[in-house]
Predict the structure.
Amino acid sequence: QVQLVESGGGMVQPGGSLRLSCAASGSIFSAYAMDWYRQAPGVRRALVATITRGGSTNYADSVKGRFTISRDNAKNTVYLQMNSLKPEDTAVYYCQYRSSQYPSNDDYWGQGTQVTVSS
């Protein structure tokens, strides 16, 4: 059983930055990919960023150029650096350990960390 704990969320003004962390109980190297999702009230949970076992990354169009996903395998931690934050980035951000190419019930989720972008 993989356990994930997100941290680093909080309140920030538009244009500000936050760095989210996702600490895993086991080796994130075993995952097919690690993902960051976000979910705002009334909105379906959406994929924000992905980093594969091989190190390749992908981003949602809405965050390209502003967010960066990275990992430290030695620390079993995945990060999401968020810059130039906008009010529409406000959401609960979730870390996902993905076991295969496609999402499935074999994946693991953290409890989420709240990000609020407001003046």
